[in-house]
Write a structure and sequence with these properties.
By secondary structure, this protein is of the alpha/beta class. The chain has two domains: 257 residues, Alpha-Beta Complex (Spore Coat Polysaccharide Biosynthesis Protein SpsA, Chain A), CATH 3.90.550.10; 154 residues, no CATH class. Helices cover 51% and strands 10% of the residues. Helix 1 runs antiparallel to helix 2 and helix 14 packs antiparallel against helix 15. The termini are far apart. The structure holds 2-acetamido-2-deoxy-beta-D-glucopyranose (2 copies). The site of one 2-acetamido-2-deoxy-beta-D-glucopyranose has 3 residues, from loops.
């Protein structure tokens, strides 16, 4: 409005001002078009939707945000004929919502967290406090069918045929309890309101999370028929079991090292095991062979721009540490013996302990400094650089022999190679190889440890008698003068 008035007054002004105002108007219209597009994104555009939820309040919020984005983008890449909806709680940061909408093309539906009435239950895991937000999928009544997803699904192919399934369809990974990492539903306000009512009245829920609730809400799914999408594309009515190929448990893969579900599709992999074994962590591969597939997926879609600053800072720091230790060679034992202490043996033990702790720290600290969601190849490289840099500090500060201190480093590299080796026929052979390697490494580790301790001993003894190596031994009575 204000701009148009200005434009009117500008028409009598100079040419430069006119151009400037035209430019301003142009900016305004493109911004308006842009906003229109965003608004239209908030409206449903397809009959069906893939949906996932996002909430805040766990230490892993950022990881799940990244995982969600990668999943959305891989769905887009597979050319799904459906909206992609993120059911986000109100406290999800606005810049995340914008990235999801503007960069990834998702439709974000903001919801209030559902109160979890099972929090006082004995086996309740705090991690699952807000998973009941999943029930909001039934409130997405703009759609005929919704495929509700957890963020730890890895899609191998398009699964749009799932929209032909009925009112509720899920996969039994466990023989008796269906899994809620992927399920099909028909949104319905009546079902949604009934579910909210059941939450209020405290329906039985074995784990206090979404899975326990849904298993209790749909108790007869095991007796339902298996889903086969009708060839004419029509939608089914009723509840169905979905073939295992829609939720292939990654742990089965580790047994065979390939997918071998001959009946049904091999479409979606899920990672329901230990929470620190999710595929988006940098250490996921080669420990878990599938981690690499997930990271390749991310590399081709979202990329790693967010983590790169941290990687650069850490690399520069580690390279600096290596350079400085090579040039300066500070020696802690020397510093400690400047003054002839009486309690020599106690100091010796102390220094030995500190040296061992330093070496341990050199292998542990870099592990926690690497950004958790980094690409697995970059992650391991940064970790190995970091542990090498910090170990070389220990080598130089305590005048230790290089090889024994670096032995764990070499063994870790070896472990990675043994794990990553592509020629195993199955997971058991692979596990046995890793075990055999560890078995052979143990004596090497022990020998290195003994060597470090004995060389510490020698260097400490030497320092005790000649406090300043390279200088003439101090005259008698020198220490007393201090
Ligand atoms: C369910 O969705 C409608 C829009 O379809 C919305 O107005 C309503 O607030 C939602 N219900 C809850 C409990 O969020
Ligand atoms: C599609 O096929 C199913 C059987 O698979 C049949 O029951 C249904 O009537 C068919 N629908 C149409 C529109 O042809």
């Amino acid at each position: 409005m204000g701009l148009r008035e200005k434009q009117k007054s500008g028409s009598s002004g100079s040419g430069v001002l006119k151009v400037l105002l035209m430019f301003l108007a142009l900016v305004e219209t493109t911004a308006a078009e842009y906003n229109n597009e965003i608004v239209s994104l908030r409206q449903p555009r397809h009959k069906n939707a893939y949906a996932t939820m996002m909430y805040m309040g766990t230490p892993r919020d950022y990881e799940f945000y990244v995982a969600t984005r990668v999943m959305i983008r891989s769905l887009v890449k597979l050319g799904v004929d459906a909206d992609i909806v993120v059911i986000a709680s109100l406290d999800v940061p606005l810049r995340w919502v914008r990235a999801l909408e503007e960069e990834d093309g998702a439709r974000v539906v903001r919801v209030e967290n559902l109160k979890n009435p099972y929090m006082d239950q004995r086996n309740f895991n705090k991690r699952f406090k807000l998973t009941l937000n999943k029930l909001y999928a039934w409130n997405l009544s703009d759609y005929d069918r919704v495929v509700m997803l957890d963020a730890d699904n890895l899609f191998l192919q398009n699964t749009d045929e799932l929209f032909q399934c009925g009112q509720f369809c899920a996969v039994f990974i466990n023989p008796c309890i269906f899994h809620t990492g992927l399920f099909v539903l028909e949104p319905s306000k009546a079902v949604f309101n009934n579910m909210l009512h059941e939450l209020e009245t405290g329906r039985k829920n074995s784990d206090g999370a979404d899975q326990g609730f849904l298993v209790s809400y749909f108790p007869n799914l095991l007796d339902e028929p298996m889903f086969h999408p009708p060839a004419n594309g029509s939608k089914l009515d009723g509840s169905y079991r979905l073939p295992l190929g829609y939720q292939m448990d990654a742990s089965y893969y580790y047994l065979k090292l390939r997918w071998s579900v001959p009946c049904g599709p091999n479409s979606v992999i899920t990672f329901p095991s230990a929470p620190w074994m999710k595929p988006w962590y940098w250490w996921a591969w080669p420990v878990l062979p599938l981690g690499f597939t997930w990271h390749e997926n991310r590399r081709q879609t979202l990329g790693y721009g967010d983590e790169m600053t941290m990687v650069l800072i850490q690399s520069v720091f580690y390279l600096g540490v290596i350079t400085v230790t090579q040039l300066a060679r500070p020696s802690i034992p020397k510093l400690c013996y400047r003054r002839g202490d009486k309690n020599v043996s106690m100091i010796q033990t102390g220094i030995k302990l500190i040296a061992i702790w330093c070496i341990l720290a050199a292998y542990i600290i870099p592990f926690f400094l690497v950004p958790r969601t980094l690409h697995t190849v970059l992650g391991w490289s940064l970790y190995l650089l970091g542990s090498f840099a910090l170990s070389s500090v220990a080598v130089n500060s305590f005048l230790l022999p290089m090889l024994p201190v670096m032995a764990p480093w070499l063994l870790i590299v070896g472990t990675l190679l043994v794990m990553a080796c592509p020629w195993y026929t199955n997971g058991v052979v692979r596990a046995l190889s890793v075990f055999g390697y560890a078995f052979c490494s143990a004596p090497v580790l022990w020998a290195s440890f003994s060597k470090i301790v004995s060389s510490l001993h020698v260097s400490l003894e030497r320092e005790t008698f000649f406090p300043r190596l390279g200088e003439s031994p101090p005259p008698p009575g020198f220490n007393k003068l201090y």
